[in-house]
Amino acid sequence: MIKHKIIFSILFFVAVSAKAQERQNPVVSPFGGIYDIPEATIKADPELEYKVVIDLVTGNEDAKEFNWSLNNVARMLNLHAISGADMSRMKVVVAVHGEATYSIANDKRYKAKYGVENPNKELIKALTNAGVTIAVCGQSLKGRGVATDEVLEEVAIATSMLTTVTTYQLKGYALLKF
């Protein structure tokens, strides 16, 4: 009987430990999976207003997979949430340009370039539903021959990444580059 209790206790501990190691998606689901680190001593400040502008330039290595840099935006939101930030005080703007430009194309344009539907559309929808503003550089669109009507409806058209980033930085947004 004692042997069974020991085995049960070990199995229970393993099950609880395994559960603690599952990725979580508290804000942007099912994207941006992160781990909770309850023993962390440096955490998000629930009293702060987080204002972040992200220079997103990295494209996909595999056009059939979603853009990992966009997924990093989801991770950032999920990490702040799990760390204690007040998500109603989190403002995020993503300035898409360069090779990442194709990530925001509608299915018709994406399929014309890569032969598959855009794997980023659900991630972009989840990000915008979480309050993220995604703006694509108009200069990058023109330079790559992508028309404004070939952009996903959730994405805003900006004059440029440069004007987007400088405008938001001057409004007090911290700059990240993915």
- The chain-level mean pLDDT equals 92
Specify the number of helices.
6
Q: How large is the share of residues in beta strands?
A: 5-15%
| Percentage of residues in helical conformation | 25-40%
Ends: how far apart?
56 Å
Q: Which class best fits the helix and strand makeup? A: alpha/beta
Q: What form results from the Cα inertia axes?
A: globular
User: What spatial order of strands do you see in the largest sheet?
Assistant: 4-3-2-1-5
**What is the total tally of β strands?**
5
**What profile does the largest beta sheet have?**
5 strands, parallel
Low-confidence stretches are: 7-18
List the helices and strands and how they pair.
Blueprint: H1 2-20, E1 50-56, H2 68-83, E2 90-96, H3 107-114, H4 121-129, E3 133-137, H5 138-144, E4 156-158, H6 161-170, E5 174-177
Parallel strand pairs: 1-2, 1-5, 2-3, 3-4
Helix pairs in contact: 2-4
Walk me through the structure:
The protein has helices at residues 2-20, 68-83, 107-114, 121-129, 138-144, 161-170, and strands at 50-56, 90-96, 133-137, 156-158, 174-177. 34% of the residues are buried. The protein has 178 residues and is an alpha/beta fold. Mean pLDDT is 92; it is low at 7-18. It has a 5-stranded parallel beta sheet, with helices on both faces. The radius of gyration is 20 Å and the shape is globular. Helices cover 39% and strands 15% of the residues.
Question: What is shown here, in short?
Answer:
By secondary structure, this protein is of the alpha/beta class.
